[in-house]
Design goal:
Number of helices: 7
Mean pLDDT: 85
Distance between the termini: 53 Å
Helix content: over 70%
Number of strands: 0
Structural class: mainly alpha
Radius of gyration: 23 Å
Length: about 200
């Protein structure tokens, strides 16, 4: 092996060793390298700096709520997908009501043809409206009734969360009591399905 190749190999090996040791130091609370949390906070601070302090505070408060709703909604979609896939097979999509399938397929077609956005477009369940998710569960209730307490319980929470979701999606500020209700409904869901 030439000295040049040996030097390159040694350089990469030392880098891997450092990375391995740095993880141990970081887990012990010793700062090694750039602080990614600090960097993210700085980037967010820069992006928000043109706006008033009260607007920034509202935005930060709403961003926490948006994050929880984002996780919740996508968790429900995954729960539906995995439950129906397990019970109806890989062609589960073909077995949900035609009206819902058509709705999602038309929205997907529009997104593929008309949108400059390049985000996720392949997941048809992602094109189902939030309010339709409860309808899918109720349509296939025999697969969900052993986990979800009742259809009434499901509809009540999903309807309330859909209203809040739409409010948030249009950048309207909620009251602290409304925040708490949303967190409570999501905590109920997480407890019921075992998250």
């Amino acid at each position: 092996m030439s000295n040049k190749h040996k030097d390159i190999r040694d350089f990469f090996f030392r880098g891997l060793m450092f990375e391995s040791e740095a993880t141990k130091f970081q887990s012990a609370g010793i700062q090694i390298g750039a602080d990614s949390k600090y960097t993210e906070e700085q980037l967010l601070s820069e992006a928000l700096s043109p706006f008033s302090i009260s607007r920034r505070n509202d935005a930060l408060e709403m961003s926490r709520l948006y994050s929880v709703l984002h996780c919740f909604e996508n968790e429900i979609r995954e729960y539906i997908r995995s439950t129906l896939s397990e019970n109806d097979g890989i062609d589960w999509w073909d077995k949900i009501p035609v009206k819902m399938r058509s709705h999602a397929e038309n929205r997907q077609k529009t997104a593929l043809a008309d949108s400059w956005l390049e985000g996720e477009k392949s997941d048809l369940l992602g094109f189902i409206d939030f309010g339709m998710l409860a309808s899918i569960i109720i349509e296939k209730w025999m697969y969900f009734d052993n986990i979800i307490p009742s259809q009434h319980w499901l509809k009540q929470r999903m309807e309330e969360l859909e209203k809040a979701r739409n409010f948030i999606a249009h950048n309207r500020m909620l009251l602290p009591s409304e925040f708490q209700r949303i967190y409570m409904y999501i905590a109920d869901w997480n407890r019921v399905i075992g998250l």
